[in-house]
Amino acid sequence: MSATPYPQHTALSLAAAGVPVLPLRRGKVPFGNCPACADNACGGRPNMKTPGPCECPGVCHAWAAATTDPAIIVSPPWAAAWRRAVCVAYHPGAAGLTVVDLDDAEAIAWARTALPATRTVPTTRGEHWIYRGAMTSHNAVRPGVDVKSSMSYARYLGPGTGHLADLPDAVRALAVKKPSPVRPAPYVGTVPTGPGAGECPHRTPAYLERGIAMAEQRITRARSAIHATVYRTFLAVLSTHGRCSCLTDTHVTRLFTAAQTKGETLRHCTDAWTNARTTLGL
Questions:
Q1: What is the C-alpha radius of gyration for the chain, rounded to an integer number of angstroms?
Q2: Which of 8, 70, 88, 236 would bridge with 156, disulfide CB 3.0–4.6 Å?
Q3: Tens digit of pLDDT for each residue in 245-269?
């Protein structure tokens, strides 16, 4: 990934045009929450549905930190982040936009036959197709295709070419048809420890809740090596609970949500979960 020259200047220009921006560090991920906001101790934004910083002045809460306020963008905490930033991101939904992120040539070929022409921006491996109109964000709606709009962020890679088209029903339909990629480990109901094995010993709510909470905390407190941290955490959870009937969709969703708050895509989360299961032979 090539760095954006003078990211703060680019951010100010976008903000002046009404596009909420935030800095991204190496790895194309947002900066981690400050100590006061770690684990959402500050309460975050109300239900994380509105953009802007919380009470603290830091660059916290990923996409929800995106702002158009130049005073915030040049403030000391943000100025320090811009000096370390490698590129600029924006919150498409808050700008009234939807980005169809096409990861490879196959996805681009599909879009050219399935979607109306609109403004396009080249990416490292594919293209961003940008439409006028916002919707709920969804990852992995089909191979190599993500939809980024509300409650998500996209890299700013330049103005692109072509004229903005209105968000078509064909893009909205992608989200409706998307199957859930979250698949918990297979459950067998008892621990396979040989004769005399009783019911799963992890059914105690406090034990399981403490384990999931610790896993969420490990992910959200990570300051580097996010991919590796997510994988190791998933591996640890599955090594303890993957062969019994403890885990539910709710628990898996909590882990995925913690990882996505740190900037992981749903595809990365799914891959890490699948790789951890494979490693453990589940």
A1: 20
A2: 88
A3: 677 777 788 888 888 887 778 777 8
